[in-house]
């Protein structure tokens, strides 16, 4: 895939920078430019509001122009494992929830409203799962991750960042986001930075005030999956069944962005059912529904806004294609289209003032450098809360033993006692 460009020494933005700038992008603002960065001087009590933050807090700009440089190194993501969540949202360290893509007709006429009343079990989205499923996977798969280069006394994971793919998608799209801000909690523990999203007040308000129409439309995406996915490579989809959104199959991938080693997990809708298909993640298929396209303006809007999110989400784990079902106002899928992730950058080149993959990736890389420099205290109960609102810089505040702490005790215990002790649970 051409977007996973091998490291080109001539295009490495780091190499041409001075020592001081090596670890920082141009969007980085340090008010005490002549002094050394002293993030601890900006520390304040847990529970303090952002308004109480000293004006001198370092920040990171999200202005697009600052990130228009060469595409950074992004290593081909490698699947290191997977896990499943069952109908009761229970974790399994296996692929039991894997589904198989069955290509529909070009004009399928799927009724996405079918089953909304009566055959729908909706996940309780007020439950804050944080990184728990990923952490369970890590504990169960320590041996796959243990650094081969380090000695037995080193208990550290061989990665810089652990997070959900969805959180990274938000970072990639930040320079183009005009509506929704975010809050990302970061904890440094045994040298690894864990990133877990915190729901903003605005997002919680939206969740609490969804219209019935919006609730139903959220079901449509899952119903589309049911029309296009089978439980076995040689069976057919069963649209008469129940849609249960607790169920999930998640891939765990390892990769590197510039000098950041990443381990993240993302939900995968289904895979190519051909046993000769390439190995994961190259056989995975992302499914989407979208309003049908009737005018050139609507096509342009799909390219300018939706394809940004679709590209970012699938590019990250190396999922090569998105299969979209276009539906009318009544929730009937009237046409299908496949988008190859590697071709999306060509599709958008004709759009005026459109988003650029390089801006997304460079911003994410610079955000990670910023986090590495600011989140210095290695302590599982300390949270650096990075916060961003559209048209503002990224800022942060520090919280000790607060409501924001997210690494569970069982995880900290397991990772400090080493991977040799296998507890029953
Ligand atoms: O607690 C949280 N704030 C979050 C938890 C935010 C995002 C995700 N999650 C968890 C859930 O355990 C979920 O199983 O992550 C899993 C999915 O992670 P992801 O792949 O990193 O998330 P994302 O890329 O945003 O979404 C992928 C799919 C969505 O498909 P579409 O086609 O709509 O993008 O995962 C589903 C949804 O089907 N999904 C979720 N499922 C459960 N909880 C959530 C969520 N909060 N968000 C998206
Ligand atoms: Ca999907």
UniProtKB/TrEMBL annotation:
Q: Which GO terms describe its cellular component?
A: cytosol; nucleus
**Does the record bear Heme in its keywords?**
no
Reaction(s) this enzyme catalyzes, per UniProt: a 5'-end NAD(+)-phospho-ribonucleoside in snoRNA + H2O = a 5'-end phospho-ribonucleoside in snoRNA + NAD(+) + H(+); a 5'-end FAD-phospho-ribonucleoside in mRNA + H2O = a 5'-end phospho-ribonucleoside in mRNA + FAD + H(+); a 5'-end CoA-ribonucleoside in mRNA + H2O = 3'-dephospho-CoA + a 5'-end phospho-ribonucleoside in mRNA + H(+)
Q: Name one GO biological process term.
A: nuclear-transcribed mRNA catabolic process
Enzyme class comes to hydrolase
Q: Where is the composition biased (Basic and acidic residues)?
A: 17-36
PANTHER family the record matches = DECAPPING AND EXORIBONUCLEASE PROTEIN, DOM-3 RELATED
Report what the protein is called: Decapping nuclease
Q: Which organism is it from?
A: Scophthalmus maximus (Turbot)
């Amino acid at each position: 895939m051409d977007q996973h460009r091998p490291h080109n020494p001539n295009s490495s933005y780091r190499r041409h920078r001075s020592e001081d700038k090596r670890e920082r992008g141009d969007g980085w603002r340090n008010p005490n430019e002549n002094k050394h960065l002293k993030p601890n001087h900006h520390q304040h009590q847990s529970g303090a509001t952002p308004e109480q933050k000293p004006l001198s807090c370092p920040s990171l700009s999200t202005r697009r122009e600052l990130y228009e440089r060469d595409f950074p190194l992004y290593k081909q993501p490698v699947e290191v494992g997977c896990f499943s969540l069952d109908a009761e949202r229970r974790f399994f360290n296996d692929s039991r929830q894997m589904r198989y893509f069955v290509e529909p007709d070009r004009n399928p006429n799927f009724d996405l409203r079918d089953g909304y009343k009566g055959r729908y079990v909706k996940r309780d989205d007020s439950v804050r799962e944080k990184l728990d499923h990923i952490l369970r996977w890590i504990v169960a798969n320590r041996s796959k991750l243990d650094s081969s280069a380090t000695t037995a006394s080193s208990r550290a994971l061989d990665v810089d960042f652990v997070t959900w793919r969805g959180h990274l998608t938000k970072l990639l799209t930040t320079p183009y986001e005009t509506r929704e801000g975010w809050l990302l909690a970061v904890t440094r523990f045994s040298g690894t930075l864990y990133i877990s999203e915190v729901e903003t007040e605005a997002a919680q308000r939206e969740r609490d005030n969804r219209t019935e129409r919006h609730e139903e439309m959220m079901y449509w995406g899952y119903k589309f999956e049911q029309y296009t996915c089978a439980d076995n490579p040689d069976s057919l989809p069963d649209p008469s069944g129940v849609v249960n959104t607790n169920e999930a199959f998640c891939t765990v991938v390892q990769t590197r962005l510039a000098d950041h080693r990443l381990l993240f997990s993302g939900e995968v809708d289904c895979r190519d059912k051909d046993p000769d298909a390439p190995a994961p993640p190259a056989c995975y298929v992302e499914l989407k529904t979208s309003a049908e396209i009737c005018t050139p303006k609507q096509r342009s809007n799909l390219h300018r806004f939706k394809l940004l999110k679709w590209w970012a989400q699938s590019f990250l784990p190396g999922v090569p294609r998105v299969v979209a079902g276009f539906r009318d106002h009544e929730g009937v899928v009237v046409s299908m289209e496949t988008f190859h992730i590697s071709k999306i950058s060509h599709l958008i080149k004709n759009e005026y003032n459109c988003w650029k993959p390089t801006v997304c990736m460079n911003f994410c890389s610079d955000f990670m450098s910023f986090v590495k420099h600011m989140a210095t205290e290695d302590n599982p109960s300390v949270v650096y809360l990075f916060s961003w609102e559209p048209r503002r810089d990224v800022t942060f505040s520090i919280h000790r033993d607060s409501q924001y702490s997210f690494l569970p005790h069982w995880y900290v215990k397991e990772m400090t006692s080493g991977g040799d002790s296998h507890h029953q649970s």
